[in-house]
Design a protein that fits this description.
Blueprint lengths: L1 H29 L5 H31 L8 E4 H17 L5 E5 L6 E4 L1 H17 L6 E9 L2 E9 L2 H4 L10 H7 L13 H9 L3 E4 L7 E9 L3
Parallel strand pairs: 2-4
Antiparallel strand pairs: 1-3, 4-5, 5-7, 6-7
GO molecular function: phosphorelay sensor kinase activity
InterPro entries: HATPase_C_sf, His_kinase_dom, HisK_dim/P_dom, HisK_dim/P_sf
EC number: 2.7.13.3
Length: about 230
Amino acid sequence: MRDHVLSLVSHDLRSPLNAIHSWAYVLERKIDSADATAQRALAGIRSGVEQQVKLLEDAVDNTRAQTKTLALARAPFALRPLLEQVAAEARVMLADTRQVTLSVVSPLDAETLDGDRERLSQALWVMLMFAVEASAPGGVVTLGSVVDGGHWQVEITHAMSFAALNSAELPRAFEPFACKQATQPRDAGRIAWVLALPQRVATAHAGSLTQGDSVDGAPSTLTLRVPLAG
């Protein structure tokens, strides 16, 4: 989530800085070189731009680079027990108290995957908790999972409720600002900030995470797809 926020901050700050830099160049050509006060003002503008650029590099770009890769502890593990475990945790932690039914629908039995079980557990937990939090009381969240074409695929479906996602009265797992952002329009292919961890885990496993459209009152699907072997 931090990386998504920093990406927006970086973009939003660079645009005005580029404009300031360009206008400083125009002023340099117009201002009398003998005007000491004007030259000091121009130097101050340039210095301010340079300081802001350095701040971006140190506080934004370097911070994003630190989490660009994710270390994995790979080992074979059974998929079905992982699904059942994460679903049980999500029920106890949030679904039951929000009166949301969470069900596992999967033909998986003894299938295994060579990957980081703990990281994938975290990814599923975030996806499930978001689906529960985005569901109105009395709603249903379905965790479906299959093995398809050498990949493990998980689909979490629910009915999107903006009122439930932004409710200050219902128990919640995520920060209010992240939930609010999840209700806003997204560019094609992008995901809500709150799903940044599942996306990072999927990418580290050479897989993918996709989020369906977020339309109030309409069905929505989160899909995680990861190769069975690293």
